[in-house]
Design brief:
Layout lengths: L25 H19 L5 H10 L3 E4 L4 H29 L19 E9 L3 E8 L4 E8 L5 E4 L6 H4 L13 E11 L2 E14 L2 E15 L9 E4 L13 H7 L7 E5 L6 E6 L6 E9 L2 E2 L2 E10 L2 E2 H4 L12 E5 L6 E3 L1 H14 L3 E7 L2 E7 L5 E2 L2 E2 L1 E3 L10 E3 L1 H4 L2 E6 L4 E7 L10
Parallel strand pairs: 1-2, 4-9, 5-8, 16-23, 17-22
Antiparallel strand pairs: 1-11, 2-3, 2-11, 3-4, 3-7, 5-9, 6-7, 7-8, 10-11, 10-24, 12-25, 13-14, 14-15, 14-16, 14-18, 18-19, 20-21, 24-25
Helix pairs in contact: 3-7
């Protein structure tokens, strides 16, 4: 069974949230204080004094992310899958070289403060080092949810208490009858993923992301789900891509946040630190989270968070010059790079991935992504140790058909090195070296 991370890329709808069944009325009065206290504890470990902490809270609120249990077991599962997948890629690539043609492999998808807020940072935790989740709250009184924040999809789904399948029983579920602000829209939806399917209905309720409150948010309540993938440690997905990718005509979570004018800057930033201090920043990004400048790249289409991919190089080998950057794209032409926090590793079209894997395993040289817009080209590189885990290359083949594809994906492996900013105001992506890394990004 393919892991959750790659399931999340191509389905139109998003999925993630680990909801608690606790609905006591005291949660409503304590939720914001708990967020404040937890954040204070985290940043006190970073050496901030009391006065520095108070200044930080006033100017820059933090929403952390964290790791889940059973990491070793899930990492073993991912390792076994990549071993099998890489073996198939090598065979397909060898066959393609022998026949002097691209392989035709097709792989299954894995898949309030009333004043404007300068920023709020939500903590994240990692599931087996392959997926990051964070807490939000839904309804009145609030019910806690640990969700996957997915920039590769646009819809919002949570597990409903009405779902009685076994996979639902292992998750925390949202009890809509316990929320005084819930409204049932009465619209049913069925979604087929590469490794499973869900059914449910749409409703609205208030969503809380720390001090940020989003009333009347449309979301899906899952009442049935099939597929082993749903046994993973997540209960839903918070899609953060553009509304053009949404399966419904309703406003996305971030669209409603923008409409509420609660943030000074409509930015969303992800930073992952394998040591455990990971998070999402809503609003302006804190300069302590990155080194050097933020390099901006304009989005080339409002669908995914996608930019022009001019080239991929491994050492001195250029996929663009060799004509293997993207299938069905002419030699010397560009492709597309998608920044997707719902995908754990790097992906490439399977014909490209076979060639890349051979070079990455043989040469053990830096992997560089060259991106471009009207302002020029920039490159962002990863050493061999940064694109491998236990000497296993963190890459898989994934074919996305037209008109959305073909494309390459920069998943969580990217964010573990580069703080990545999603700017809804200017339709651009910002990239800066994470404070947890000391290697330098090179501009072309």
């Amino acid at each position: 069974m393919l892991p959750l991370l790659l399931l999340l890329l191509l389905p139109i709808l998003s999925w993630g949230a680990q909801l608690s069944d606790r609905t006591d009325s005291d949660i409503a009065s304590s939720i914001l204080q708990k967020n404040y206290d937890n954040t204070k504890v985290q940043y006190s470990k970073s050496g901030l004094s009391g006065k520095e902490w108070e200044a930080f809270v006033q100017a820059q609120l933090h929403l952390p992310v964290r790791k889940k249990d059973n990491e070793h077991h899930r990492r073993q599962h991912l390792t076994r899958h990549l071993n099998d997948h890489h073996h198939a890629l090598r065979q397909a690539h060898a066959s393609a070289v022998q026949k002097e043609e691209d392989p035709s492999m097709r792989w299954m998808h894995f898949m309030q403060y009333r004043a404007k807020i300068h920023n709020y940072n939500l903590a994240l935790k990692s599931i087996a080092g392959s997926q990051y989740v964070g807490d939000i709250h839904i309804g009145t009184p609030p019910q806690r949810a640990s969700v996957v924040f997915d920039t590769g999809s646009s819809n919002l789904w949570v597990t409903s208490s009405e779902c009685e399948t076994y996979s639902c029983s292992v998750h925390n579920r949202f009890h809509h009858n316990f929320s005084s602000t819930f409204t049932d829209i009465g619209q049913q939806m069925d979604v087929q993923f590469g490794t499973g399917a869900i059914s449910g209905s749409l409703g609205t309720d208030v969503f809380h992301l720390g001090p940020v409150h989003i009333p009347g948010q449309v979301f899906g309540r899952i009442t049935s789900e099939t597929g082993q993938v749903f046994l993973n440690d997540f209960d839903g997905i918070a899609g953060l891509s553009f509304s053009e990718l949404s399966a419904t005509k309703e406003k996305t979570l971030f669209d409603n946040l923008i409409a509420a004018r609660q943030l000074e800057k409509n930015w969303l930033s992800f930073y992952y630190d394998v040591s455990g201090h990971s998070g999402i920043v809503f609003g302006d990004v804190h300069p302590h989270l990155y080194h050097g400048p933020i390099h901006w790249v304009n989005v080339n289409k409002r669908l995914y968070w996608q930019v022009e991919l001019y080239d991929v190089t491994i050492g001195r080998h250029s996929l663009r010059r060799q004509g293997t950057l993207c299938p069905q794209v002419a030699k010397g032409k560009s492709c597309t790079l998608v920044f997707d926090t719902g995908t754990s590793i790097f992906t490439a079209p399977s014909s490209s991935a076979g060639h890349m894997l051979e070079l990455m395993e043989t040469l053990r040289e830096p992997l560089c992504y060259h991106v471009a817009d009207a302002n020029g080209r920039q490159r962002f590189c990863f050493d061999h140790s940064e694109y491998t885990h236990g000497n296993q290359v963190q890459l898989m083949g994934l074919d996305v058909g037209a008109p959305k594809g073909p494309l390459h994906i920069a998943g969580d492996t990217w964010v573990e090195k580069f703080l990545t900013v999603f700017d809804h105001d200017s339709n651009r992506v910002g990239i800066a070296l994470s404070a947890s890394r000391s290697r330098r990004t090179t501009r072309v």
